[in-house]
Amino acid sequence: MRVLMVSSNTTLEPYPVYPLGCGMVTAALARAGHEARQFDFLHSGSSLTALEDAVRKFDPELIGISIRNVDNVNYMNTQFYIDNVRTMVETMRKAAGCKIVLGGPGFSLIPGPILERVGADYGIIGEGEALMVELAGNASRGVYPQERLLGPETRLVRGEIPPALYDEEIMKFYAQSGGIASVQTKRGCAHRCVYCSYPVLEGKQIRQRDAAAVVDDVEFLTRERNAKLIFFIDSVFNDDEGAYMEVVRELEKRELDIKWTAFFKPSGLTEQNVALMKKTGLVSVEVGADAACDTTLKKMGKDFLFEDIIRANDLFAAHGVASANFFMFGGPGETEQTVHEGIANIRGLKNCVAIMFMGIRILPDTALARIAQQQKIISADDNLFGVTYYFSPEIQKDWLEKTLTEGFAGQRHCIFPPDSKTDSLRMLHKMGYSGPLWDLLYAPRSPRARPPRENAATKG
Questions:
Q1: Percent above pLDDT 70 for the chain
Q2: 327 and 390 belong to one structural domain
Q3: Cβ–Cβ under 8 Å, residues 318 and 446
Q4: Which of 66, 72, 70 is nearest to 23 (CA)?
Q5: Measuring CA to CA, which residue among 221, 395, 196 is closest to residue 290?
Q6: Do 292 and 387 sit in the same domain of this protein?
Q7: CA atoms within 13 A on the CB side of 448
């Protein structure tokens, strides 16, 4: 059966990343014997004409659309993506008479409302590799589900999680737009961050891919697809069980000449492990700090303190690894006092770039949604399809924006608003610079003294 898999992502922020989930489902379809092909909306220049032409040329018998995000989770510059998908579906309806199926992490968060808004035929909730293959197999015999929403199904484990199909032409676009290639080493997250949707989407148990299979992907991307930087896109790379070091040791064993980056949490890191990661090509990290003082860290469900963030930054800096910390102001427990304490703490960081956000996007089935219901910020029957942000009742939004703007003014390592450097990054990529922005903004150096932290009495 001819199946066209379409990545609907239209955002380049903070940098363009290969549509990995779409590639994984395409690979699963191909292994099942279907003629599967990928179409990437960004690669096509976000052109509806190019999309319509691709559909007419391939003449698919089934179309799948991957939705990565519902919106850009930036309160100060909100962008809503679902209406773009609806326009894409309308365009494809003109060119093909086949069924259209929605999926992807963004869709799985709010499946019913998105399916109705977009006007597709079916939607797959959760991991799409098995369900899309089953749907395509039945459709090839003219059999279609009676229910429009399918899943979620039992989650894939270890060897069942497939490598992605990295389309050569699509990869050329991403190689020229920063050179970043995505690889997944595991699914699932055991942490309890109140705002996070990863445990909802992927489960609370870690499901590790085989380390050799992961590094096979890395080797293929660097040698056959001209990838300049490998991005391990796990919700947290350095899992508490230490399984991530299996991947690192496999990288060491093969002696590949690569550069890589990943998401990290700031606790549980050791000198030995960071040294080995640096040896295997680690050049930069994105640290999920999320809150800027101990009080708000605890309220966000974090199991570390701000001292751990400081130690992590110093450890990465000592090994010449650029680091970026992401902070959200306005979350549960935020007060004017914790805002001022957080600003002082972040200004005191000397070995990282810090990116600040205002408010937290409320997502369904998260602890933050339950907190927002208890505080009457949202109602119990709110499906959160509309973009809704949480702000602590203890602070005013206008005051928070003014205070953050003034507090981080003149601080080169502090980025607020969070997309204020986006245009600079795009220009750098056009000039041939590869990698994330903070590699350029932050030149690693030895840890140095920092001013004392303020309001230490507010520790949680």
A1: 91
A2: yes
A3: yes
A4: 66
A5: 196
A6: yes
A7: 7
Question: What's residue 439's pLDDT?
Answer: 58
Is-contact 22 38, C-beta < 8 A? yes
The strand pair at 229-232 and 260-264 is best described as parallel
Q: What one-letter code names the amino acid at 417?
A: P
pLDDT digits (tens, 9 = 90+) for 344-374: 999 999 888 999 999 999 999 999 999 999 9
Which residue, of 132, 150, 168, is where some domain finishes?
150
290 lies in the same domain as 372:
yes
403, 396 Cβ separation under 8 angstroms: no
Per-residue model confidence as pLDDT tens digits over 245-261? 999 999 999 999 999 99
Q: What is the CATH number of the domain that holds 23?
A: 3.40.50.280
Same domain, yes or no, for 8 and 85? yes
DSSP-based helix, strand, coil % in the chain, nearest 5: 40, 15, 45
Average pLDDT value for residue range 281-285: 95
pLDDT in tens, 299-331: 999 999 999 999 999 999 999 999 999 999 999
Alpha-carbon distances of 340 from 159, 298, 330, 400, 450, rounded to whole Å: 48, 17, 12, 10, 17
Count of Cβ atoms closer than 10 Å to residue 119 Cβ = 13
The average confidence (pLDDT) of the chain is 90
Task: For residue range 103-120, list pLDDT tens digits in order.
Answer: 999 999 999 999 999 999
The answer on 256 and 136 residing in a single domain is no
Residue 367 sits in a domain whose CATH number is 3.80.30.20
d(C-alpha 202, C-alpha 205), whole Å: 8
How many domains is the chain built from?
Answer: 2
The strand pairing partners of 207, in sequence order, are 187
Please indicate, yes or no, if residue 160 is contained in any of the structural domains: no
Residues 6+ apart with CB under 8 A from 430: none
Segments in 280-364 forming alpha helices (H): 294-299, 306-318, 336-347
Tokens of 143: 């059999």
Q: Give a yes or no: residue 309 inside a domain.
A: yes
* Domain span holding position 28: 2-150
Mean pLDDT of 7-17: 84
Residues near 337 by Cβ (< 8 Å), separated by ≥ 6?
455, 458
At residue 458, the pLDDT reads: 34
